[in-house]
Amino acid sequence: MSGRALLMWDDAVTGYDFGPSHPMDPVRLALTMGLVRALELDRRIEVVAAKPAGDSTLRLVHRDDYVAAVRAASANPADADQSYGLGTLDDPAFAGMHEASALIAGQSVGAAEAVWRGEAAHAVNFAGGLHHAMPGAAAGFCIYNDASLAIARLLELGAERVAYLDVDVHHGDGVQAAFWDDPRVLTISLHEHPRMLFPGTGWPEETGGSGAAEGSAVNVALPAGLGDPGWLRAFHAVVPELLAEFRPQVLVTQHGADTHFEDPLAHLAVSLDAQRAVQLACHGLAHEYAERGRWVALGGGGYAVVDVVPRSWTHLVGIAAGEPVAPETETPESWRHEVYARTRQMAPARMTDGRWPVTWRSWEDGYDPADRLDQAVLATRRAVFPLRGLLA
Description:
- This protein is 35% helix and 10% strand.
- By secondary structure, it is α/β, with parallel strands linked by helices.
- The chain has one domain (5-65, 99-388): Arginase, Chain A (3-Layer(aba) Sandwich).
- The chain starts with a strand and ends in an 8-residue tail after the last helix.
- Pathway: Ketone degradation; acetoin degradation.
């Protein structure tokens, strides 16, 4: 397998634009790519573009009638069919919606194909990670579920074990639903508790379908207000053991940046330093447990579009490229000028929140029955670990 890494990018992905008042401002993508270039990471990772996902690819996950509805809304936004989740407050219809959504999906599918075929060890599509879209409906700012499509293409190419790890603040419900009855796919989602946050799913008792698929879904419902030590404790208390047992051929990860304490749509208190720590951990887990280190890394949510998202995903690109950006690195002056020119906001001056190194208490250090986080972790371990032959 080639040791190279790919960054999937096409300027046209910024056409995924729900309008000026929508939280998912595509400037977050443009500013991320701008920061990647300003730090010259594009010289250390191969930047490539894939074709948009065609109908035969979209049908791997999405229903024909839904794709037809997206096409119709894309051509005539005013006539969007809300029964498909289109033309709503969360997912307003816009001209060219099908084309932009299919392009993002194509980048994730192309990343998966390249990694499976040995053309690259790692591939990143930070425009992807649109994990809420269902087979027959848009949801949560997501039209086509590129993560599910990438996994489905891996299965189509012959993969027998794919692990999907989602650390977005919102539950990875669309990916879980797509593979609920498929034991070839292990989905793991760490997210804010469903009582507190959209989509209201992701309870520890959601453990997959019946038969061989039982135990193929893993959900860690995190208490609101959780900060760096607790977030990392939960991650390391659940993820490594499951990946060691499952031994995926490919690890697909979703890195929504909306766990950050500045994100306006959620209630966790995680820093950029902790997000970077999890990205590094995912890279290490891919090399330790995935076949030949195969790793596909996607973006996701994140609505602090200047202060958080570009820095978080630029760290992800650097890690995949084998050139991690040091936490103390200052953001380049040229990028700060770009931020101001595009947004009239002041850019952050350094690449993290200054909390490196981030420390946490391992699960082996003991369970505290009065701690809400430990209660959440234990609920997950008790629900799913025995189904996978592991001790809770």
